[in-house]
Design goal:
heterodimer; A: alpha+beta; 5-stranded mixed sheet; 6 helices; 21% strand; elongated; B: mainly alpha; 16 helices; binds protoporphyrin IX containing FE; binds copper (II) ion
């Protein structure tokens, strides 16, 4: 059994151990029957009764199927419940942004501190990872936490964990991603919260993603259309947008989340806000994934005026 | 079947050379390369498939040797990636998928249904040529520089990023797919139209049921594979943007298309083996199989349900949580017919008169390995557990238990069972038993440690790995060398038996089934007169009473 270092791990292991128990039972049962029959009814053994013919055994088959069905639905339900509860992301978690590329993991904490192939996190606090890839599909895998999530190019994926033990744990890329796939590894360092606080603030002051994002916003001259003072301009105002519903020109309503914002920057004409013309140019090719994350962080930071 | 009354099973042993049969009806190269005799085509397949198995096996051996050290000192990283890709591509598309259908199916389907040949003999020959052409493309790709995408070809890595011979390989697989479709079509039509008088559906041998189910998957599933490959090709050549999000595509779409074929393809690999085992067990137990209809229908059920579970390969990919739930549940449903078969085979041994010749050893080995592979399928279908073990060595172990433990054991069992029919010669029994046992133990030593490795967290397709995984990897490599020796034996003694094997009778196992009613090796036209079937399959009890053989009652 690998180390258990997250709140999820003991639950997964419990299911896993039950499955092992069940498999062992069935393997022994089948092997037992086969060996018993093989010995008892071997051709040379003359003294045994072989008289009765095979009866059709329909009732037997049906009851075996019923047992198998019940059992397997039970396992399904257990695995499904656990999966459902583990895919609900707690809202009070701390946010970490992840960009994967051939062949490294880049992390950025909410205060701006960056790391490569290493992630420091505090003990006992949910950590939410929002992840995207710059090229092919990767997969973030921390065996000790029993979590794994594919990191796709072009859209954000997220997962979360809450560490229950301090120490260092393997971080792997689990989706084959090219030549150095097996070197796309790193470690997760779980620290006491106080220690983590020191670590996070300890280095030279860093720029938070929102502040960096504001600079990108200005450099790209986004503000010429999206003035943040609430005045109606050529583009919709961005303040207070994140997490709220947006009415689109084609009548649909959509919640402005990371994916929507990202798409609106890269392919503005695909979801046009009701009441505006599709005049925004695409910024595809002008911003990389990290700048996108910063822009989104900046937009998020703009509270309702 | 009751024809036994007309053709007594105990005949004087005739050396195969003395009589005219399909093997000595012509010796020229053309008489082989232009043959439309299903039996000769089966042998063409046998030779070519064995060739590919050896190549795939060599790749596996190098991979396994390389993994003995955590730093992967034997080959370079690029080479390692190309080797496991070559291994996977060759084993899946050029060995496992065609193995039983193309070799044993081609040889046996007409014999078992009492026909002179398949419905379309020329199409059958064509499908072998298509297979060889596809194989040639893929071999070219390997020799020219190799492919490093893994046999799954996940986009956008394969469609945009990989700089290797993806196109040539893809063309090879695409072409081979047609061979599979044609073979499947030929079987479906033959089984529907060419059964001997009296051979109703419920008198069919279970092998035919399983080949029938397999053929349906081949005909319906393979076009989807062809389409996915075509789309990857379009994207590589013309930048279509179907899978690469930079071009507006969706990378998950490829996985859906790919697994929509490749999951059912797993059943293409395993169903025929189940059919073989369902022939062997009754024969060596001298019993009717327990629950004939349940075994037959479960093949069809597996084929149908098999199309509905592809999404269980995508639990961590980003498909919706609800899709995950549905696919997980359907996966459990498909497990039930498989379990039913294991139950029925075991129950068939009850009150039998069991002997342990080589085919029976393989069949028993099959049940053991398939059971373990199947049970670990329940692990990977349980959502929360799969999140942890997906794309680790746990999965590698699981699919080797099914595909190698199951499919290859069944294939070898079948080859041994019908070898006397195919060649008119017996292989040396003791060597054969020894190799069956070696393969069983070598197999378990190779792949059982991989379950543990996987749960401990070692991802698959890793050339270098953390040192704490070394012990288990070394065990696995040791097992692989035993396994390699085990596989090498049949290769040699079967060849040896062609010249020096003891000549056999038409029915050395005293088996029921039409294929045993014609001499070994069969004449070109299979049967001198069309057999008429008036009885159920597998009536071993009556057979033994009439002939007074086999059973120690
Ligand atoms: C001597 C016996 C064998 C050994 C030692 C062996 C070993 C391996 C190894 C180490 C991998 C790569 C796992 C990874 O890096 O993720 C692999 C993959 C695979 N093997 Fe085998 N194998 C053997 C026999 C077979 C046979 C007989 C078949 C099929 C008939 C087969 C089918 C596959 C497939 C389909 C893959 C997946 C390839 C991929 O990951 O792209 N193997 N095997
Ligand atoms: Cu990666």
């Amino acid at each position: 059994m690998p180390e258990q270092a997250s709140t999820l791990a003991p639950h997964v292991d419990r299911l896993y151990l039950s499955l092992i128990g069940m498999s062992l039972f069935f393997t022994l049962l089948i092997t037992g029957f086969i060996l018993y029959f093989a010995i008892k009814y071997r051709r040379g053994n003359l003294g045994v009764d072989r008289s009765s013919r095979t009866h059709r055994g329909v009732s037997m088959e049906v009851s075996v199927m019923a047992v198998l069905f019940t059992l397997s639905m039970g396992i399904f339900a257990w695995g499904a419940t656990l999966y459902l509860s583990s895919s609900r992301i707690p809202s009070d978690g701390m946010d970490v942004r992840v960009v994967a590329k051939q062949w490294m993991w880049k992390f950025q904490h909410s205060n701006g501190r960056r790391e490569i192939n290493e992630l420091h996190v505090p003990l006992g606090q949910p950590v939410k990872l929002t992840m995207i890839s710059e090229d092919v599909i990767h997969s973030l895998y921390v065996p000790a936490f029993r979590i794994k999530r594919d990191v796709l190019p072009g859209s954000y994926a997220s997962c979360w964990f809450e560490a229950t033990r301090t120490g260092e744990f393997h971080l792997f890329c689990a989706e084959y991603c090219g030549t150095n796939h097996s070197r796309m590894v790193g470690r997760i360092v779980v620290m006491e919260p106080a220690e983590y606080g020191d670590w996070l603030g300890g280095t030279s002051p860093t720029e938070s993603p929102a502040v960096a994002g504001e600079r990108v916003f200005e450099n790209l001259r986004c503000h010429t259309c999206h003035r943040s003072n609430g005045v109606a301009t050529r583009g919709p105002p961005l303040a207070g947008l994140f997490g709220h519903e947006v009415k689109l020109a084609d009548g649909r309503t959509i919640v402005a989340d990371d994916t929507y914002l990202r798409e609106s920057i890269l392919r503005p004409s695909s979801k046009v806000v009701a009441g505006y013309q599709p005049i925004m140019p695409t910024f595809d090719g002008q911003v990389d994934e990290e700048q996108l994350i910063q822009l989104i962080a900046y937009i998020k930071s703009l509270a309702q005026p | 079947m009751s024809i036994i009354e007309r053709s007594p099973p105990i005949q004087p042993v005739q050396p195969p050379r003395a009589r005219r049969h399909y093997l000595n009806s012509g010796y020229s190269v053309a008489s082989w390369l232009l043959t439309v005799d299903h039996k000769r085509i089966a042998l063409l397949y046998l030779v070519s498939i064995t060739f590919f198995f050896v190549i795939g096996g060599i790749a596996a051996t190098v991979v396994r040797l390389d993994l003995m050290t955590p730093q992967g000192d034997l080959v370079r990283t690029e080479t390692y990636n190309k080797l496991f890709t070559a291994h996977g591509v060759i084993m899946v598309f050029f060995f496992l998928i065609p193995s039983i259908p193309a070799v044993l199916g081609n040889f046996l389907v007409p014999l078992m249904i009492g026909a002179r040949d398949l419905a379309f003999p020329r199409l059958n020959l064509l499908s072998w040529y298509i297979y060889m052409l596809g194989g040639a493309f893929t071999l070219y790709a390997l020799l020219a520089g190799g492919v490093d995408t893994g046999w799954t070809f996940y986009a956008p890595y394969s469609s945009t990023y990989s700089n290797t011979y993806v196109m040539a390989t893809a063309v090879g697989i695409f072409i081979t797919g047609f061979s599979s479709i044609l073979t499947g079509l030929n079987f479906v039509v033959s089984i529907h139209k060419m059964r001997a008088p009296g051979l109703t559906w419920f008198r069919l041998p279970l092998f035919i049921w399983s080949i029938y189910a397999t053929s349906i998957i081949m005909v319906l599933g393979t076009p989807v594979l062809a389409i996915s490959i075509l789309l990857v090709a379009m994207e590589r050549l013309f930048g279509f943007g179907i899978f690469d999000p930079r071009l507006g595509g969706d990378p998950i779409l490829f996985q859906h298309l790919f697994w929509f074929y490749s999951h059912p393809a797993v059943y293409i690999m395993i169903l025929p083996s189940m059919g073989v085992v369902s022939e062997i067990i009754p024969c060596f137990c001298r019993r009717r199989p327990f629950g004939y209809a349940f075994i037959g229908f479960s093949s069809v059920a597996i084929a149908v349900f098999g199309f509905l579970v592809w999404g269980h390969h995508l639990f961590v990919s980003g498909q919706s949580v609800y899709a995950g739930l549905v696919f997980s549940m359907l996966s459990y449903l498909v497990a039930i017919p498989s379990a039913i078969k294991v139950f029925n085979w075991t129950a068939s041994m009850h009150k039998g008169s069991i002997s342990f010749e080589t085919p029976m050893l393989y069949a028993l080995g099959f049940i053991g390995l398939f059971t373990m592979g199947g049970l670990t399928g329940l692990f990977v279908a349980a959502l929360a557990v799969d999140v942890h073990v997906h794309d680790t060595y746990f999965v590698v172990a699981h699919f080797h238990y099914i595909m190698v433990g199951g499919a290859v054991m069944g294939y070898l069992g079948g080859i041994h069972f019908w070898w006397p029919k195919m060649t008119g010669r017996m292989y040396p029994e003791n060597w054969a038993r020894l190799s069956a046992i070696l393969i069983f133990f070598g197999f378990n030593l190779t792949f059982f440690p991989q379950y543990i490795l996987g749960y401990l967290g070692m991802p698959r397709r890793y050339h270098v790995y953390p040192p704490e995984f070394q012990v288990l990897n070394v065990m696995s490599s040791a097992g692989a060398s035993i396994l390699a020796v085990g596989y090498f034996f049949p290769l040699t003694y079967l060849l040896w038996s062609l010249w020096y094997g003891k000549p056999t009778t038409s029915n050395p196992w005293n088996a029921t089934g039409l294929e045993w009613q014609t001499p070994s090796p069969p004449p070109t036209e299979n049967f001198t007169e069309t057999p008429i079937v008036v009885d159920e399959a597998y009536d071993y009890e009556r057979f033994d009473q009439q002939v007074g053989t086999g059973g120690a009652r």
